[in-house]
Each structure stands twice: as structure tokens, then as C-alpha cells.
């Protein structure tokens, strides 16, 4: 029994409403699940999709975005059907992705899933620390360029901003569990629309004014500034960026675990999957297409932090404020499942420890726990130090994402679906599902290779803790 379950059981005699498994009754719905999905998926990476579009061109870029959206809706719906075992509606709840994999595929797959899932979550929190500091520096640079001219030398250290972001996350990390994140997640989802529309709007203004650059059906042209090998590497990276942008598998069961049981969680989650991924894809196409139309071959890696725009400086700065606000909420949405699994494990190993299990109520509505305070603080501090030491960690993050894309979004859902529906080996449906899995495996390999190349190039030229943007 985990920490939360033991607390609910101890309250059986109180007025707290309980679910069918003795836990506190859940109140989430398809709308709240959609906000969680948007918070996780529509990250600052959406502003980098213009660069991906520039590498692939109009036909391949739009096609790839739509294909991966369709694959994501299908596989996430398979995951939703496996929330309960053995029946999607009346079975026993699986509280985590690992539990679902264990129920349908066994212990070995369970361990492999856990290593990939929580390793990726840890990496993403480091990446979000870097992204936030990059946007905070971009705000300072926008003001600097406005005052001193666009060619002024405006370089600033990311470290103070990472430290400030880390301190804020130490405080927010004391939120007890995922169920308490709805308001934070909603604010984060709203701000994600803010910076996506600011980036798209500024790009549209460039296009409408007639200052947009030349674009191509097949993307950037090979020539003096772009060799054929570099073009191939960039296409690999672009495919990986688009595929990995669709990922929220690491927290999908944590989102489902907030949904009320009537109507069935799987039905609500399927509706949230369709809504969330449709909104996500619309923003992807909007930002990617307009950004590419504005900058052509010179499309920056991020149209707000890469200074594709200088003016109006206040709008560029506000867009970056929205990014930081979103990262604050998204950090917690992704960190809470990691916090939860560690605390569940500690509770199982030391069930009688007051340090680990005793809760101290506070006047602001949250309970206080010494183990939670200590270990979550240490985690955020370590993640912040790693971000400061290696601010090119986005390449490492890309590698983690590449490793996680195929197993978490495609392989495990497909295999669980085959086990649940008892699909016969070598039947037509079995073969189609395995082909889908194999194609997505190749995409993961391609993205991983591109990330490894980026890591090797950065390691050669970087000094620890000395990065300035």
C-alpha cells in the first residue's frame, strides 16, 4: 500500500468520499486532462518547429506533423484502454504506467519501462531548467538590443536565472501530489497558447508586410552554406523534434489517475487525447508554417529566444515571460510522478518511519512531510546544478526523448493491446501493429543518432559553468 492509499484508508471513518479502491474520490474530467496534456506537450519546443519545417520543406513538414499526430492519438488510446486490468472499464486500476506494463507484459518489461520512463522524466526537468533560463536571458537581451541597437554585444550568464528558477521549484515541489496541480497546470496551458500565438503573430506580421523569405517545397537547399551530409543530419533532427514533441507518455497514467470513475476513465481520456493532440497539432502547424514563411533558410532554432524578432521588444519579452510561466507549471507536472514513485518505494521499505510517513497539517491547506521536503529539495538542487554545468543538455534531452519515444509511445502500448485483446501472432492486425512499431523504432534511432552528433560537437568546445548566451 502506498502513502496516499494509507492516508485514505485511515480516513474511512471521516466524511471523505472514497473511490471503489478506498482512495480519495477523484474529480477530474476530460477538460482537466486536456489541460494537463497541453501543459506537457505544448512546450517551448513548439517555437523550434519552424526550424524543423525549414529542414523538411512544406510537403514533408506538414505530412510528418499530421502522421505523428494520428499515430499519437491511436497509441495513447491503446494506453487508455490498459488503465484497468484485465477489462478497460471494470478491471482493477493501474496507478502508474509501470503497473500497467507489469499487469499485461510481466516483470522484466515492467523494470525496463520504469528505467526509461523515470530516467526521461529526470532529464526533462533539467531541460526545463535550461529552457527557462534561456527565456529569462532572452528577456534581458530584448531590452538590451532595444536600448543599444540590434548589433550590440548583449551576452549574459544563464546561471543566476537557473538558480532563481531552482529556488522557485523547491517551493512548488512541496505540493503533495499530482491532484493538487490542476490550477497550476491550467495557468501553464494558457501561457503556452500565449507564446505560441505571439511567435505565430510576429511571423504573420513579417509575411503580411512582404518581408518574408523564400521557402521551398523540399526545405533548405544544398549549396555553399549547407553540405549534403549536414542536410541529412538536419532532416534527422527535424524528424526527431516533431516525433518527440508529441510525447506525454511519461505522465499519461498520472493524468488518468485524476479522472473520476464515471464515466469510465478510458472514455474520458480518449476524448482528452483527441482534444489535446488536435490542439497541439494545430499550434505545431501554425508556428512551424508561419515561422518558416517568415525566415526561410535562415529560420532560427527558436523564433523567440533565437532573436528572429527584435521588435516590438516588449512583445518578444512578454512571449518569453509566457514561456517561463509555462515551464514553471510543466516542471511540476513532470516531476510529480517521479516524486511519487520514490515516495511510494520509501513507504514500502520503511512503513513505520515517522520521518517518511508522518504528515503535519498547515494553515494553507497542504500537509507538511519531512521526507518530502528533504528529498525533493535535494532533487531540485541536483537538477539545477546539472543544468548549470551542461547548458547544452538539450542535446542530452533529445537523446533521452529519442530513447523514450519508441518504447513508451509505441512499443509498450502495442504489446499491451495485443495481450489485452489476445491478437493472434502473424494475423493481419498483428503484422500491421508490428510494422507501425518498427517504423517508429527507426525514427527513434534516427533522432538518437542526431542527438549524439550534437553532444559530441558541444563537448569539444564547452567549459563547465562558463556558458553565456
UniProtKB/TrEMBL annotation:
Transmembrane segments: 30-52, 58-79, 100-119, 125-144, 156-175, 181-208, 274-293, 313-334, 373-393, 399-418, 430-452
Topology term for the membrane: Multi-pass membrane protein
InterPro entries to which the protein is assigned, alphabetical: AA_transpt_TM (IPR013057)
UniProt record, GO biological process: amino acid transport; auxin-activated signaling pathway
Ranges of residues in domain Amino acid transporter transmembrane: 27-454
UniProt KW keywords: Amino-acid transport, Auxin signaling pathway, Cell membrane, Membrane, Symport, Transmembrane, Transmembrane helix, Transport
Coarse class of the protein's main subcellular location: membrane
Molecular-function GO term, any one: symporter activity
Protein's cellular compartments: Cell membrane; Endomembrane system
Gene Ontology CC terms: endomembrane system; plasma membrane
Role, per record: Carrier protein involved in proton-driven auxin influx. Mediates the formation of auxin gradient from developing leaves (site of auxin biosynthesis) to tips by contributing to the loading of auxin in vascular tissues and facilitating acropetal (base to tip) auxin transport within inner tissues of the root apex, and basipetal (tip to base) auxin transport within outer tissues of the root apex. May be involved in lateral roots and nodules formation.
Family membership noted in the UniProt record: Belongs to the amino acid/polyamine transporter 2 family. Amino acid/auxin permease (AAAP) (TC 2.A.18.1) subfamily.
Name of the molecule in the record: Amino acid transporter transmembrane domain-containing protein
Species, as recorded: Psophocarpus tetragonolobus
